[in-house]
Amino acid sequence: QVQLVESGGGLVQPGGSLRLSCAASGLIFRLYAMKWYRQAPGKERELVASISSDGGARFYADSVQGRFTISRDNAKSTMYLQMNSLRPEDTAVYYCNTVNFWGQGTQVTVSS
Q1: How sure is the predictor about 93, in pLDDT bands with cuts at 50, 70 and 90?
Q2: How far is CA 56 from CA 10, 23, 44, 59, in A?
Q3: Are 12 and 110 in contact (CB under 8 A)?
Q4: What are the pLDDT digits (tens) for 37-55?
Q5: CA atoms within 13 A on the CB side of 46
Q6: Cα-Cα end-to-end distance for the chain
Q7: In what order do the strands lie in the sheet containing 18-25?
Q8: pLDDT tier, 31 (very low <50, low <70, confident <90, very high otherwise)
Q9: Which residue among 8, 42, 47, 101 is least enclosed by CB atoms within 10 Å?
Q10: Exposed e or buried b for every residue in 15-37, given b needs 16+ CB within 10 A?
């Protein structure tokens, strides 16, 4: 079965950086576009970034444009989200997604 496993979350101070990873199994990873979503307490889940199957096309939400970078390594069946210049409003659970499959999420907390 398809599994998406996120890692790399944690507590970081404002202005800091984190890199999230999403390891995929049970699917031919190189054929699928991938997405990162996040959900903050009391808010709806929102799309953060997406990447095409070959990595050639990327989308970013306005709120993270210029600070976050999405990438993938098809040989490792893994997607990444490099998050720089983190802000308290980036605090959320971050989820990996493709089609109707979701990971369990990884908590990112930005606080001093």
Answers
A1: very high
A2: 29, 19, 28, 10
A3: yes
A4: 999 999 999 999 999 999 9
A5: 16
A6: 40
A7: 3-7, 18-25, 78-83, 68-73
A8: very high
A9: 42
A10: eeebebbbbbeebebeebbbbbb
Determine the 3-state secondary structure of 66 from DSSP.
coil
Residue 112 vs residues 16, 28, 87, 106: alpha-carbon distances, Å: 10, 41, 10, 19
Distance CA 50, CA 33 (A): 7
Residue with tokens 């980036």: 90
| Amino acid sitting at position 35 | K
The dihedral built from the CA positions of residue 41, 44, 48 and 49, taken in this order, carries a sign that is positive
Residue type, 110: V
